[in-house]
Design goal:
221 residues, 12-stranded antiparallel sheet, chaperone, two-stranded antiparallel ribbon, alpha+beta
């Protein structure tokens, strides 16, 4: 199934990233302080823009993400009304609604993105990376904090992740831009607006559907 996002001919990352900071004992110590604080952020809302490049195609979309853990709503909208899709998730599972008015169900968002849209976007990992923290219980291959204790780069599950343009949101600093890269996929996620303490998500209809047993395979309605 083709992803709804229209193809673009563009180079995903045109500007050179700034020189990496030198590892310092101060940066590592501050990182140990910052990480627990960032991990406590479980309610947020953000707006941004995602650009994706694979071996076969390029796509871009506007992103709206509302998180009230464990529930979330994630929308991808192509520019100029070219299409949209929406993910609604709870602890029980995820629903994907496409521009073709099809609805798919699975246990996790990564499975839906990979099998339905043929896009290896690690949504479950992004929940942590957008906050500038590693995914828990997944081995960290490498990481580098900045001098002020926020992540500059991370290698985890064979993904190379770079963070910059940190912005003050209430009493914390959160990434304004994130690069993701592995052997087949690269993406740039620019976050234009952060809001913490998002209101609860109204998903009564979603809850009813997800109370039904979910198989390990994707199915659609």
């Amino acid at each position: 199934m083709k992803l709804f996002l229209f193809a673009l001919s563009f180079i995903l990352i045109t500007a050179c990233a700034p020189a990496p900071p030198k590892r310092s004992a101060i940066g590592d110590a501050l990182w140990q302080v910052q990480q627990p604080r960032l991990s406590q952020i479980e309610r947020f809302q953000l707006n941004g823009r995602l650009a994706v490049k694979t071996n076969e195609d390029n796509w871009t979309a506007n992103v709206y993400w509302k998180q009230h853990t464990p529930n979330y709503e994630l929308r991808f909208t192509a520019p100029m009304g070219q299409g949209a899709l929406r993910l609604d998730g709870t602890a029980q599972g995820v629903i994907l609604r496409t521009a073709e008015q099809k609805t798919y169900y699975a246990d996790n968002p990564d499975e839906l993105m990979r099998e339905v849209l043929k896009l290896a976007l690690p949504v479950s990992y992004l929940y942590y990376w957008v906050r500038g923290i590693p995914v828990p219980h997944v081995a960290i291959q490498d990481y580098l904090p900045s001098e002020n204790g926020y992540l500059y780069s991370l290698v985890q599950a064979d993904w190379k992740v770079h963070f910059d343009r940190y912005q003050a949101v209430q009493n914390v600093q959160l990434p304004g831009r994130i690069w993701l890269e592995n052997e087949q996929f690269s993406a740039r996620f620019v976050i234009s607006e952060w809001q913490l303490d998002a209101l609860p998500i109204s998903n009564s209809a979603l809850k009813v559907k997800l109370e039904m047993p979910l198989s390990n395979k994707i199915w659609f309605y």
